[in-house]
Amino acid sequence: MKCLKFLLFAVLGLFLFGCTAAGKSATTDTASMEWRVKSLEESFLNFREKQRQMADEVVEDRDRLDQRVTDLEEKVAGLRNGTSVAVPTEETPEPPAGEGWVTDLKPEDDGWVKPEGATEPPVAQSGEDKPWADVPKPPATIPEPEVVKRKTAPKPAPMTASRPKAKISGAQALYAKGYKQYSMDNMEGARATFDQFLAKYPSDALAANALYWKGETYYSEKDFAQAILTFKEVTGRFPKHHKSAAALLKIGMAYDRVGDRDNAIFYLRALIEDFPNSDEAGLGRKELTRLGG
């Protein structure tokens, strides 16, 4: 009887151990699959981004080559049609000695120069007294003007009572620092500050904003693959936040930049369905019209 009970307990223990192991294995397989899907998506986005950059470089090289060919054609055409222009080398003759320049200018005209040796006729003098002829000399010492001192109004007494300044929390100060760095085009510094904010204040009211602006740093650097992943993190962690509307718009625009029109249309439609009255939805409708979606 004791052996039978022991055997039953052993079988029950093996069964429970097998169920636990199976559960852990299923959880591990799910996490592994999610990681593989995210890795594949990131690799695909990076590949599309490189394709877009190579296409842009080819267009730029072709434009530069066309411009050089056009410049060379213009130079060759100028050499074929150009004519030599004779440049006069004769020196300007000097006027004969003892004679002045012959000119059509009159004394009242600008640029007229009085010839050397010419004298002006004497001016007729009047016999009247000329009181202005003798100019009085200045006094030896000039008296200083009297300075009249004016009574100045008394300065107002300094205010003793001052309004207390509103205290800024550590989270607000750190967020403001990151946003200022972003505004000054310091994308790496802003990204590091927003990461510090999210690690220190993950549940703060500004966490969604910080994560969104982190995505904007990638978008500004045209790293559209990382921008898409970061904006998707905004919509995943804060689906009802107003920044999710802006994130959906930027996801659609980023997919369009890497040439993935289908995903661009999909996320723009999701924006209009989830946030139909937002400003971002209005922009999303324009993008859909442009993409023909």
TrEMBL record:
This protein's record includes keyword Transferase: no
Keyword tags: Signal, TPR repeat
SMART domains: TPR
Keyword Signal: yes
Signal sequence annotation: 1-21
Residue stretches of each TPR repeat: 208-241, 245-278
Region listing for Disordered, in residue ranges: 79-144
Protein name: Tol-pal system protein YbgF
Native source organism of the sequence: Pseudodesulfovibrio portus
